Amino acid sequence: MKEIATIGIDLAKNVFQIHGVDMQGRTVLRKTVTRGKLLETLVNLSPCLVGMEACGGAHHWARKITEMGHIVRLIAPQFVAPYRKSGKNDANDAEAICEAVTRPNMRFVAIKTPEQQAVLTLHRVRESIKADRTALINRIRGLLQEFGIVLPQGAARFPQRLLEAITDADMPLDAIGIFAALRGDLMRLNERLAECDQRIARLAREETAQRLVTIPGVGPVTATAIVATVGDARLFRNGRELAAWVGLVPRQSSSGGKTRLGRITKNGDSYLRTLFVQGAMAVIHHMGDKGGPRFEWIRALVARRGIQKAAVALAAKTVRTAWVLMARGESYRMAVAV
Fold first, then answer.
1. Residue numbers of the domain that contains 263
2. Which of 23, 106, 170, 336 registers the highest number of CB atoms within 10 A of its CB?
């Protein structure tokens, strides 16, 4: 076999497709291997460039293959699609990955460490608990309405309000028992959510996260999420690149020298984008009569463009500020009037 210079791997659960080319770009390897044989196949090859799509399990395989001496690059799936020559199948996908990874201007995804993935797993579990709690509250509201009981909105005080409602309600004992059991389920979800928040608070004691939480609109959840998701912020040349990666920059449709900007792209990590927008919305709602250039800018923006667009603009500004703190190791300094 001729020496392989570049390999593209189409990952799956059990069967992986490998496509390899030499220095001249000629195909020298096409092979399908099972999950247990992937590392065995690669360990017998000379160190080369290995490309994979950034999908489920990609970071695990990237770490294992890197340990063998190969150079591993992860590519977002949308950047691989243009290099697929014909119909979509495993062989064509592997060939497209092999071609895309050699492009000099290709954007790659940073390989996450097991510690980063552990933090993000905690965040995903927390979000799933929140979704389960919201679904349960809505279910209870709908069932209560059948008995003519409508409770005020808000998850924090809902268990107490539910207890008061079923205690004073004129309904069969069987129904009261059912609502009491549902309240028990809700209390357990609240306990699990509180446990996740405590773990996140402990993670937020890390130095970088401690600097990030000093930014208005950034709390422990947002700080730990961006540290775990981004990793090394120096991979981005500036704050705008990070904001674009999160999807908080305008979509462009420019031509003929005329610039046309539209809504935000919403590319990248939707969870991070949601956290930053929610944090910006909290800053706007709680700024009151606070003075300073930052809050004057926010008020002017709200008056000119409305709260929703102002929140998105403030979120983008916050992401850029976060990049400075992460990439340069600086501390947050509130702008002062000159």
1. 213-328
2. 106
Q: Are residues 227 and 298 in the same domain?
A: yes
In a domain, 188, yes or no: yes
What pTM did the predictor assign?
A: 0.88
The tokens for 14 are 């059990």
Q: Is residue 109 part of a domain?
A: no
86 vs 222, higher pLDDT:
222
| 33-83 pLDDT per residue, tens | 999 999 999 998 999 999 999 998 999 999 999 999 999 999 999 999 999
* Those residues with Cβ within 8 angstroms of residue 231's Cβ, 6 or more apart along the chain or in another chain: 110, 112, 113, 116
Same domain, 88 and 143: no
- Whose structure tokens read 């096409």? 30
Q: pLDDT by residue (tens digit) across 86-98?
A: 889 999 999 999 9
Any idea how long the chain is?
Answer: 338
